[in-house]
């Protein structure tokens, strides 16, 4: 029998009020989601300061300006590469060719700086640069034309590719003529800074074109590119030359030393490249339509296509940017270590992927932040520095890096929810929640998607 004030029908779909997540818990979880990687970095720096050996004068070696400068110099190259990798992984892709493109870029840099006249490296760079400039001009022209059509009156619009292609061809010809004029003498650093990255852009665009047009897995395509580009780099360098040495003022111009300088005596120039590129990429992802498209493609590519997004073009652009930044790292590497090597970037792709994953970017796509990638790069850099100062061998460092990657992915999948963590570790799929609970907790996880 029903009691006096009991309703005749109880809703079986509405959860009890005491089972709904506390708003304070949701806010705390959202805050932890945003700052968890920075907290890890702060804890790591504090640990390094506590465990650091001391110099003869009693100063803390880890906290010294010279040590921080070394760390910033070491992480700058991987950091620039990781920014491009972040864009690719947000689209649910992967780029395993970044290390080989970096080695290829170092070889082109070394040969262009030290060997006057036309050679295999100069012809290769000029050809790839012409392709890149043609693609950039045609792409920008097409974007401007679409915006003009969108603002104009409705009606039938005739697409005219001829003028854009003609302008692209002329721009590519002028740029190659400018570079060709410098080949009889040693190429300047400023010319190398645009020739080599554009060569990497062409390689990345080719990767993206094969992936999108051939409907092939990014893992397979970029794995093949990793092997093929390294082979091209060795062919360009020559069978008998494993390393091209660079001596400023001797076989190369002295302006190469600018990339080895320290700003204010602490900040290396490569670190400045890293900071500027990271800021630009963060702005692009959060403030531009292109960035929103990348998140949409990674979140659900099929829905993005149905919505009318140019999925293929945006994915090609992401891979092209990744290739361009990897080749730029080759320039920075050649300037720092005064050499160009075809295999200089072996294993760097794994470091870049690890830094991106540590920074919270999901390998499934659609979720990621440049700020998190920067934190991941710094975590790896300071971790290696701490282990080195405490005389920990390199093998142990690799083990610890592997453990950190596994823990980071586990935290991503469980969204730092203790109940889900214990459920996963106990062999259960997770904690069952009602629709109202999921809707109430969704606001806490929405911050992850930016």
TrEMBL record:
The keyword Cell inner membrane applies. Keywords: Cell inner membrane, Cell membrane, Membrane, Transmembrane, Transmembrane helix, Transport. It comes from the Bacteria. Residues 434-450 have a biased composition (Low complexity). It is found in: Cell membrane. It is a multi-pass membrane protein. The chain crosses the membrane at residues 35-55, 75-94, 101-117, 123-145, 165-183, 189-212, 219-238, 258-285, 316-335, 374-392. Residues 1-20, 429-450 are annotated as: Disordered. This is Monosaccharide ABC transporter membrane protein (CUT2 family). It comes from Paraburkholderia gardini.
């Amino acid at each position: 029998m029903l009691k006096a004030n009991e309703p005749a029908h109880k809703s079986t779909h509405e959860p009890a009020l005491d089972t709904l997540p506390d708003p304070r818990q949701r806010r705390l979880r959202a805050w932890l989601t945003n700052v968890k990687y920075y907290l890890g970095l702060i804890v790591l720096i504090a640990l390094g300061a506590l465990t650091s050996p001391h110099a003869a004068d009693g100063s803390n070696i880890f906290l010294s300006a010279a040590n921080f400068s070394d760390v910033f110099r070491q992480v700058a190259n991987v950091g620039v590469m990781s920014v491009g990798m972040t864009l690719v992984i947000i689209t649910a892709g992967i780029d395993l060719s970044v290390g080989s493109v970096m080695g290829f870029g170092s070889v082109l840099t070394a040969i262009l700086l030290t060997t006057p006249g036309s050679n295999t490296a100069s012809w290769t760079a000029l050809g790839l640069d012409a392709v890149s400039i043609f693609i950039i001009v045609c792409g920008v022209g097409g974007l401007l034309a679409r915006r003009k059509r969108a603002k104009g009156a409705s009606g039938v619009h005739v697409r005219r590719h001829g003028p854009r292609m003609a302008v692209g061809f002329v721009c590519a010809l002028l740029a190659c003529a400018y570079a060709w004029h410098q080949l009889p003498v040693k190429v300047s650093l400023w010319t190398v800074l645009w020739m080599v990255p554009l060569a990497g852009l062409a390689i990345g665009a080719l990767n993206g074109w094969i992936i999108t047009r051939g409907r092939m897995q990014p893992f397979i395509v970029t794995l093949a590119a990793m092997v093929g580009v390294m082979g091209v780099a060795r062919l360009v360098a020559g069978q008998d030359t494993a390393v091209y040495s660079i001596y400023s003022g001797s076989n190369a111009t002295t302006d190469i030393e600018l990339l080895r300088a320290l700003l204010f005596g602490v900040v290396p120039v490569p670190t400045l490249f890293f900071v500027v590129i990271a800021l630009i990429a963060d702005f692009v992802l959060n403030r531009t339509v292109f960035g929103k498209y990348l998140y949409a493609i990674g979140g659900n590519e099929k829905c993005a296509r149905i919505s009318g997004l140019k999925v293929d073009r945006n994915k090609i652009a992401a891979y092209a940017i990744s290739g361009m930044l990897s080749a730029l790292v080759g320039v920075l590497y050649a300037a720092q270590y005064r050499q160009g090597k075809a295999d200089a970037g072996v294993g760097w792709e794994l470091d870049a992927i690890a830094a991106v994953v540590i920074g919270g970017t999901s390998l499934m796509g659609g979720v990621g932040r440049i700020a998190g990638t920067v934190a991941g790069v710094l975590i790896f850099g300071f971790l290696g520095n701490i282990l080195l100062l405490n005389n920990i061998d390199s093998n142990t460092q690799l083990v610890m890096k592997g453990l950190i990657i596994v823990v980071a992915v586990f935290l991503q999948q469980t969204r730092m929810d203790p109940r889900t963590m214990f459920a996963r570790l106990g062999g259960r799929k997770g904690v069952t929640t009602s629709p109202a609970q999921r809707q109430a907790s969704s606001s806490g996880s929405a911050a992850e998607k930016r």
